[in-house]
Structures are given as C-alpha cells and as structure tokens.
Amino acid sequence: MKGLSLRRATLEMFVIVGSILLAFGLDAGWDAHQRQADAEDLLTDLLAEFEETATELERAVVRNQEVITAATEILAQLTRSPGNPEVAASTLAKLILVPTTDPRRGNLDALVASGDFGLVSPRHLRGSLADWPAALRDLQEEELDARVFVQTTLIPFLANAVELQPIFAWRLAATPSNRGVTDIDGTELSDDPMIRLPSDGQFSNLVATRRYLSQFTVSNAGTVQEELEAIVRALREAVTN
Question: Domain residue spans in the chain?
C-alpha cells in the first residue's frame, strides 16, 4: 500500500513538474515568437522611415544646388556689369533660401533610447543605425550655420541696399507648401522684377560666402547619402529575408 502511494506521489510529482516545464516552454516559445514579430515590425518601420529620409535629403541637396546656381549667376552679373548689376527678384530669393533636413526619426530614436539593438539583424546594421544620428547631426549643424549667416548677416545687408518685398514674395513661393504663389494671400506670381544689386566688394564677399556654405553642405551631404543608401539596402534585405 505504501509502495502504491509512493508511486502515485512520484507520478503526481512528475506530472506537476512536467506541467510547469511545459508552461515555461510555451511561454518561452511565445516570447520568442513575439520578439521575432516585434523585430519584423521594427525593421519594416525603420525602412519606411529611412526611405523618407533619403527623399528629404535629396530634396535638400537639390535646393542647395539652386542656391549655388543663383549665387554663381549673381557673381557673374557683378563681374559683367559692375556699373549697373541687376538680377531677377527670384534669383535673389534663392540666395536667402536655407534648405533644411529634418526627417522623421521616431522609430530610430525609440530604438536608440531602448538600447535593444538585438532586435536588429544583421549585426553590421546595428552599428550603422547607432552611428546615423551623429552623421545627420553634422549635416544639420552645417545647415544651421547657413541659416544663421542668412538671417544675421545677409538679409540685414540686403535690407539696407534693396527692396525686400519682391524678394520675400519669391522666397515664400519657393517653400514646398507654397510653390508658385506669392505672399500670404496665395495669389500666383506673375511679376519678377529686376533688382539693382549693390556693386561694392562687401556684397560680392557675402554672395561668395553664401555659395560656399551651400557647396560645403552639398559636398558633405554626398557622404551622408552614401551612408544612408547602405542602411536602406541593408534594411530592405533584412525585411525581405
């Protein structure tokens, strides 16, 4: 009788232990499945985020190139007609244009804050994602330098030398949300008056500095774009695999 009770107790013990181990195994399996699902969702969201960033960065590069073209045209006009240099208001408006790169980074910022880079595979992609904020920050600091120069030096100089209203009208028209309109009333631009330029050397130096700032940004943006393209390729491979 005692032997039967002992066997029954032993059997019950194994059943209980087995049930506990099974429960732990199911929980572990579910946790692993959930983590894999979280990783897939994160990679998909990061890919969308970085593709948007690539588009925004390309747009900023194109607009900086517009600044370079405008500055080059102004400098050429100052050389060709030193006694009566003139350019269209739309050209001067591009000179005070300051493109900015401010992409959406919610998913990446959340990943960096959590420190859970184990969700990201392959391994080399983890390092690229961790380094990306610093690369983008360098570019944004260059854009900030250009903005400060335009707002604190170039525009005040122009305010004392030319009529700003038509320039600002075309500057507003150049913003992405107002392409082809003027001022706040939203009417279409039709007049692009010629603006008499200051012919002194100080203005030439300011224009040359403005061109250099955009050239510097475009040059460094090329390196940033290469890093960004590598990240996008790795994310696409991770999402499809």
Answer: 2-240
Strands annotated E in 47-189: 86-88
- Dist. CA 97–CA 215, nearest whole Å: 14
Which residues, including other chains, have CB under 8 Å from residue 193's CB and lie 6 or more apart?
88, 89, 166
Per DSSP (E only), the strands in 28-173 are 86-88
DSSP state of 188: B
Give the Cα separation of 125 and 130 in Å (integer). 9
User: What is the residue-level pLDDT of the chain in tens, covering all 241 positions?
Assistant: 555 566 666 666 665 665 665 555 545 444 444 566 666 788 888 889 989 999 999 998 999 999 999 999 999 999 988 888 899 988 999 999 888 888 888 888 887 777 777 777 777 888 888 888 888 888 899 999 999 999 999 999 999 998 888 888 877 765 544 444 444 444 455 678 899 998 888 999 999 999 999 999 999 898 889 999 998 998 888 888 7
Instruction: Confirm if 214 and 71 have CB atoms less than 8 A apart.
Output: yes
- 220 and 101 Cβ atoms separated by less than 8 Å: no
Residues, the chain: 241
